[in-house]
């Protein structure tokens, strides 16, 4: 079976821009199985769940008793939910890609962060402002990578991600963020960065890899179809979570390195 093999060009592009898109990264059979599983699990949602009402972002229901108050934002604990999710998160092609982007080190999957089926439902989804994922994480270094598998089309209409290329390499002051650590869109010095933003359009089976310091945002879903993505976050062997923090609250999964196999890359 042919796998994706990244090289120095992809490594350098990721380091420069803070993200990398691999088109058709999920094989057709795997994608269809994951899509089916996601629909089944959303039809009968089981804890742990994060509801839109719990985060209180613009567009979300005001509380769990409001209209749409039971709308799911994330099905948490994906790795342990089902063998298909586990197999996806640890597949050899995933490990090889991450090893290259980290610089050929041992890779660990975090069960404390992301590790979820991310959803955006019509009518009751929310807007997420500009932010860096590392804001609430606690590791020795701010060097983690998230792998975002689109289970359907993602674009501006249904709340697809927007990113600011290269923002993971920029040193920002704490004054450029609000009390919830969102990047302030009202500041002139921030607007210069926001003006450089680009939309990330994904097709089913595409995977977006992005750095934990990359500024990104997303609007609510303006279509009549739920948007679904399977999202996992990884670190390398030199970046353990800090003790007694949320980042260290769940066992991490050590991923074994695979044998490399050549393939053709399709980049954004």
Automatic annotation (TrEMBL):
<dbReference type="GO" id="GO:0005506">
    <property type="term" value="F:iron ion binding"/>
</dbReference>
<keyword id="KW-0223">Dioxygenase</keyword>
<protein>
    <submittedName>
        <fullName>Phytanoyl-CoA dioxygenase family protein</fullName>
    </submittedName>
</protein>
<keyword id="KW-0560">Oxidoreductase</keyword>
<dbReference type="InterPro" id="IPR008775">
    <property type="entry name" value="Phytyl_CoA_dOase-like"/>
</dbReference>
<dbReference type="Pfam" id="PF05721">
    <property type="entry name" value="PhyH"/>
</dbReference>
<dbReference type="GO" id="GO:0016706">
    <property type="term" value="F:2-oxoglutarate-dependent dioxygenase activity"/>
</dbReference>
